[in-house]
């Protein structure tokens, strides 16, 4: 006869695991926000953010601020966006002194119970958008903020600022570029960042644009060096992204092993350049040669020979006109962070358990006996073949671990790279003369590629911690099931097996619910960032973009802009 009291006792013990947290990161809400943004329904996205669960979740304060900042940026409310980004920056800094209690909860429960800190590339983009916000406030001369109308409803109030205030925002844009550079310097100096993402094309390219806009000799020199740095970053770090290199995975393996990451000789068979690479390479070569010709004319011949520009670049260099218009295009939406399954071995953990009570229980039963029980009664057989999810260094190690005798599955975050393969041409049509000016828009940042690589690196670095945490939960449930089995197998072996299995299955469902992958992310970022520069006479222009892929072509009207006769004109659009 089955011992019902014992059964209830140990099922209760197993089901206790269910209470160990269940957080999904508000996936459905985030998907709806993305849908609204993709349909250019920014107000609907704001309403959902204000009324939804992301705002209420104390662990998603940073993401709440970032999503608001991006949506208000899309709306052209640059001062409001800048204010939210300033708050986000303060939160991000404070989170790096996280509490011991939070560390403990994330270890026992799951990563969703930690504050979201942001991936490194997301924290980098905070600087990009802040610098762009400040420059746009300088250029438009408009500040906006929240106030209340006579009915006490919150509204946006806009005001024109003085020339002095505008110049201050220009200075703040430059200061943000310097802070951005310092951010990456800190990452390069720190040993806690196990990543190859220790610099970025954007900080070099857009940093060069802002320094050029300062129109000072010293800033022109800095801009020139930044463009030179960008050319090197594109050649090495850029080649680890599929948008720039058809052999990105082969290149990544070599990049990880290279001691000097930006100097080693690149074998031709691991670098197959895409058109995106060639276009951005041409843009950077053009910028370097153009600036060299203007500010270091004695170096021009040497640099011309060294860079060996394409015929298209040479044709552009023949023009003496200085580019005075920069257009930044934000294309699509960044690839989603989604849950993926990972197979983790239990057998090796049995002899290396640190928790005293669990270790004592295993010792009393015996690891070999427990292994036989897991295989024969609970059916915890390994999945076919080793798991090689990570394409980053060490994937084969996790493959061996996951191929052990008994195994479990749990969720890990994953971002699928979305290689950019379309071409974009921007068109400026002068409303007074009907003169049309066209320019290719090179890919400055394949954000989905960067996101995919960043998440993969982080998953690899935390996989053992996550796997061990999940495995211990399963061991507790297995020990309870084993106790049920041992207490009842003398009376009814078949029923004992079924009740033990039922106990474990119930607990494992609770564990699965408690171990949702942390798929929180800055969901309103674009899939890619593009940049163009051209020289235009002062006047009013209609701006459009032509987007071509292998299968289709479409034109999009972007808006009307006024090009001023002095200084740099920077315009930003989402497409």
> What general form does the structure show?
elongated
* DSSP strand content: 15-25%
Relative helix content = 40-55%
Class from secondary-structure proportions: alpha+beta
Query: Gyration radius, to the nearest Å?
Result: 28 Å
Mean pLDDT: 85
How would you characterize this protein structure?
By secondary structure, the protein is of the alpha+beta class. It has a domain at 4-20 and 339-417 and 453-514. The chain contains 21 helices and 12 strands. The chain has helices spanning 4-15, 27-38, 42-51, 53-56, 61-74, 78-95, 100-108, 120-140, 163-189, 201-213, 217-236, 248-257, 275-295, 300-307, 311-317, 347-350, 356-365, 367-376, 395-402, 447-488, 493-514; strands spanning 142-148, 154-160, 325-331, 337-345, 407-415, 423-430, 436-440, 443-446, 528-534, 539-548, 553-563, 569-574. A 4-stranded mixed β-sheet has the order 8-9-3-12. Helix 11 packs antiparallel against helix 13. The radius of gyration is 28 Å and the shape is elongated. The model is unreliable at 1-22, 104-108 and 385-404 (pLDDT under 50).
């Amino acid at each position: 006869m089955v011992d019902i009291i014992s059964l209830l006792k140990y099922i209760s013990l197993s089901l206790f695991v269910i209470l160990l947290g269940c957080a999904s990161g508000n996936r459905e809400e985030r998907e709806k926000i993305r849908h609204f943004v993709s349909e250019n329904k920014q107000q609907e996205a704001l309403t959902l953010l204000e009324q939804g669960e992301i705002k209420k979740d104390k662990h998603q304060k940073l993401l709440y601020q970032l999503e608001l900042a991006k949506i208000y940026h899309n709306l052209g409310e640059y001062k409001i966006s800048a204010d939210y980004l300033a708050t986000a920056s303060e939160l991000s800094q404070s989170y790096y002194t996280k509490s011991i209690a939070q560390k403990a909860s994330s270890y026992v429960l799951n990563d969703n119970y930690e504050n979201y800190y942001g991936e490194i590339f997301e924290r980098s983009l905070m600087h990009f958008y802040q610098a762009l916000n400040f420059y746009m406030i300088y250029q438009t001369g408009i500040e906006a903020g929240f106030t209340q109308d006579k009915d006490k409803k919150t509204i946006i109030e806009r005001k024109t600022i003085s020339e002095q205030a505008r110049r201050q925002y220009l200075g703040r844009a430059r200061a943000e570029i310097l802070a951005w550079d310092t951010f990456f310097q800190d990452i390069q100096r720190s040993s806690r960042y196990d990543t190859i993402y220790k610099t970025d094309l954007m900080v070099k390219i857009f940093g060069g644009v802002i320094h050029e806009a300062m129109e000072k000799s010293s800033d022109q020199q800095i801009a020139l060096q930044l463009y030179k740095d960008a050319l090197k970053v594109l050649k090495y770090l850029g080649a680890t992204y599929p948008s720039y290199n058809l052999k990105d995975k082969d290149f990544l393996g070599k990049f990880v092993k290279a001691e000097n990451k930006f100097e080693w000789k690149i074998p031709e068979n691991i670098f197959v350049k895409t058109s995106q690479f060639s276009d951005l390479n041409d843009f950077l070569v053009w910028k370097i040669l153009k600036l060299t010709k203007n500010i270091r004319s004695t170096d021009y011949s040497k640099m011309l020979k060294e860079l060996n520009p394409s015929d298209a670049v040479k044709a552009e260099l023949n023009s003496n006109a200085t580019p005075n218009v920069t257009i930044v295009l934000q294309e699509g939406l960044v690839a989603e962070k989604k849950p993926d399954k990972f197979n983790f071995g239990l057998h090796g953990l049995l002899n290396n358990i640190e928790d005293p009570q669990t270790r004592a229980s295993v010792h009393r039963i015996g690891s070999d006996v427990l292994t036989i029980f897991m295989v024969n009664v609970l059916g915890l057989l390994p999945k076919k073949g080793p798991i090689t999810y990570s394409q980053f260094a060490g994937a084969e190690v996790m493959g061996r671990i996951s191929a052990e005798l008994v195994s479990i599955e749990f969720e890990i975050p994953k971002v699928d790279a979305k290689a950019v393969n379309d071409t974009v041409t921007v068109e400026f049509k002068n409303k007074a003369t009907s003169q049309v000016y066209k320019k290719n828009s090179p890919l400055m940042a394949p954000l989905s590629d960067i996101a995919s690589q960043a998440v993969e690196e982080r998953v690899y670095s935390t996989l053992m911690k996550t796997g061990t945490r999940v495995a211990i939960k399963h061991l507790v449930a297995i020990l309870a099931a084993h106790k049920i089995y041992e207490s009842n197998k003398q009376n009814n072996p078949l029923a004992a097996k079924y009740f033990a299995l039922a106990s474990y299955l119930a607990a494992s469902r609770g564990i699965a619910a408690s171990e949702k992958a942390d798929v929180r992310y800055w969901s309103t970022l674009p899939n890619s960032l593009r940049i163009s520069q051209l020289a235009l006479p002062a006047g009013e222009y209609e701006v459009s973009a032509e987007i071509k892929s292998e299968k289709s072509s479409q034109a999009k009207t972007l808006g009307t802009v006024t090009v001023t006769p002095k200084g740099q004109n920077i315009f930003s659009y989402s497409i």
